[in-house]
Specification:
This protein has helices spanning 20-23, 26-29, 37-44, 59-72, 78-96, 104-118, 146-154, 184-199, 203-207, 214-227, 249-263, 276-279, 282-290, 304-314, 327-337, 341-357, 365-375, 380-388, 391-397, 406-415, 436-447, 452-465, 471-483, 498-504, 513-518, 525-531, 538-544, and strands at 135-139, 161-163, 168-170, 174-177, 233-236, 267-271, 294-296. The protein folds into four domains: 3-30 and 78-296, Rossmann fold (3-Layer(aba) Sandwich), CATH 3.40.50; 304-415; 436-483; 498-544, no CATH class. It is extended. It contains 27 helices and seven strands. Strand 5 (233-236), helix 11 and strand 6 (267-271) form a beta-alpha-beta unit. By secondary structure, the protein is mainly alpha-helical. The strands form two sheets. It has a five-stranded parallel beta sheet with strand order 4-5-6-1-7, with helices on one face. The termini are far apart.
Length: 545
């Protein structure tokens, strides 16, 4: 692997990190600047593209636009700012004890090698190795936005940084999902696979052998975490970790404490309240000694933040009869969703799609309740437990979740006018198999401000329906559709018969050739023009020369 020339590994660009203890560490200086509140909100905020003219599009096309809500709507809340501060601090603090400019990183690597050789997680060469790493757990019911928020926050950091002076490939963060009913061994193998996807290596094959003990796997995993200077390891879906398969609570405790205290790599554990057994007891005592505690990621409460969130979301409707957001509607929306952001956004998407299907283009209390009853059955038990504040039931059903809504939106496409839909994609692209005509028209429409998720299906449909139309006429038809104009009443070219045009020529000026053509009767136009002297006699001309 030619690391310095690999485009996947951008070279480090060092900045002043703002604090003297950070300035002497290239692993910290290569990170983005520490964000202030305004920058953090700007980085996290994401709103879907919305054009009022899209309301004039056919219903089955508007369903594609509605899908933008599920993929592009993100409003930063106070809990997101708190989480960003925690991650920012723990990454930088964790690097203080692993500085490639000093002996600290080398000592960690030497100790890691000793653990691999001795097959003992407690083995070491250098005793004077300090860990500055911390950990914390993030707990909340499914759908409340934990994973989405983490992904957005982590994406503000580079995935890989190459330091040529130190021959080091730094990974500021890596995130793995705990396998269902997984053991610690399976968790380690997930880590190797994640590194392989990030770096193009073959660590899973090299270190993830089935015959290796858990201690061996953890030692290899820990060493790679320091070889690549991982800033933070995020383990999601921790409730799936099987205590029995993991070797018992003591083995699990040893795993997490070793990673943070001994190896020096910060860890974030993410899960639902079902992970309570993992986070309680001895785990809780361990976190107190090495971590920042827990961040309980609760659902939104029906307060001012909730009202602002719903009011912003309400603006994005592709319906012709958009009603105001009443107090009654707000109350019903909260009751149905219980403040769970994922449920709220999916309810808004599916309610709009249902309104298009039944051809009553407005969102009402009755429509919201009907969509909830029909489409949200997988999470009814969890939402009922939340309504009644039943703590035991909340734990039992806390990892129930709504499936992706794309299939539901596709069903809406089929129901609208009985036509087959084009498969929904979050960010449609023109593929190489599409005709050049389609590509060029889509490109022109995008230049005019039409989003790709609207332009591609519209152009494809129009070209398939009228393949003989020129690109100019296709654009004319579609822009008329977007603006709500009836193209039958505003044709681009007025059609007139040839006979009508010729009859109009009899009133032209005497020297206009079209007048001669109109008056020629049955004579060939050549003979008529020759008789008038407009065309010279070529024979006479040749004789004269």
């Amino acid at each position: 692997m030619n690391e310095s020339n690999d485009p996947r590994f951008p070279e480090a660009k060092y900045i002043d990190p703002g604090l003297p203890e950070y300035a002497g560490n290239p692993l910290i200086s290569a990170l983005p600047a520490i964000m202030d509140l305004g920058t953090c909100k700007k980085q996290l905020r994401s709103l879907p593209s919305f054009n009022e003219n899209e309301i004039n599009l056919p219903p089955h096309i508007r369903v594609h636009a509605i899908n933008r809500l599920a993929t592009s709507f993100f409003q930063p809340l106070s809990v997101h700012i708190t989480l960003e501060s925690k991650i920012s601090l723990m990454i930088r603090q964790g690097y203080l004890g692993r500085n490639p400019k000093t002996a600290s990183l080398v000592k960690h690597l030497n100790n890691g090698y000793e653990r691999i050789v001795k097959k003992d997680l407690q083995a070491y060469i250098h005793e004077d190795v300090d860990s500055t790493a911390t950990s914390f757990s993030l707990i909340g019911v499914s759908g409340c936005g934990k994973t989405t928020a983490l992904n957005r926050l982590l994406s503000t950091y580079p995935r890989v940084i190459y330091h040529p002076d130190y021959h080091l490939i730094q990974i500021p963060w890596i995130k793995i999902d705990c396998p269902h009913a997984g053991s610690l061994g399976e968790l380690c193998r997930s880590f190797f696979h994640a590194l392989d996807r990030r770096l193009g290596t073959n660590y899973a094959k090299k270190y993830g052998g089935k015959r290796k003990s858990i201690d061996e796997l953890i030692a290899e995993m820990a060493q790679l975490a320091n070889v690549h200077s991982i800033g933070v390891l995020v383990i999601d879906e921790i409730q799936h970790l099987n205590v029995a398969k993991g070797g018992g609570a003591d083995m699990m405790l040893n795993f997490f404490v070793t990673f943070v205290n001994t190896i020096g790599v910060p860890v974030i554990l993410v899960g639902t309240p079902k992970a309570r057994s993992i986070f309680e007891g001895e785990f809780r005592q361990a976190r107190r000694s090495v971590g920042q505690g827990s961040l309980m990621w609760d659902r939104m409460q029906p307060d001012n933040s909730w009202n602002r969130f719903v009011e912003e979301l309400w603006k994005y409707q592709w319906l012709k009869d958009k009603k105001g957001l009443t107090h009654e509607l707000k109350g019903v929306i909260y009751d149905l969703t219980q403040g769970i952001v994922d449920i709220l956004i999916k309810l808004m998407c599916l309610a709009q799609a249902r309104a298009l299907v039944i051809r009553k283009e407005t969102i009402t209390v009755g429509l919201l309740k009907k969509v909830y009853e029909d489409e949200f059955k997988p999470v009814h038990k969890m939402l009922k437990a939340l309504r009644h504040g039943d703590a035991d039931r909340i734990v039992e059903y806390s990892d129930l979740r709504m499936p992706a809504i794309e299939s539901k939106l596709i069903e809406s496409c089929v129901a609208i006018e009985g036509q087959a839909p084009i498969t929904l994609k979050p960010t449609p692209e023109i593929n190489s198999d599409q005709p050049e005509k389609v590509k060029s028209i889509v490109s022109l429409l995008q230049d005019m401000g039409v989003e790709a998720d609207i332009a591609i299906p519209l152009v494809t449909q129009e070209v398939n329906k009228n393949p003989a139309l020129s690109p100019m006429l296709v654009i004319h038809q579609l822009t008329g559709l977007l603006t709500g104009e009836d193209q039958a009443d505003t044709p681009l070219l007025k059609k007139t018969s040839k006979k009508q045009r010729i009859e109009a020529w009899v009133d032209l000026e005497p020297n206009d050739l079209r007048l001669a053509y109109a008056n020629r009767e049955q004579t060939a136009i050549y003979d008529t023009l020759k008789e008038q002297g407009t065309i010279c006699d070529i024979g006479r001309l040749l004789m004269a020369t």
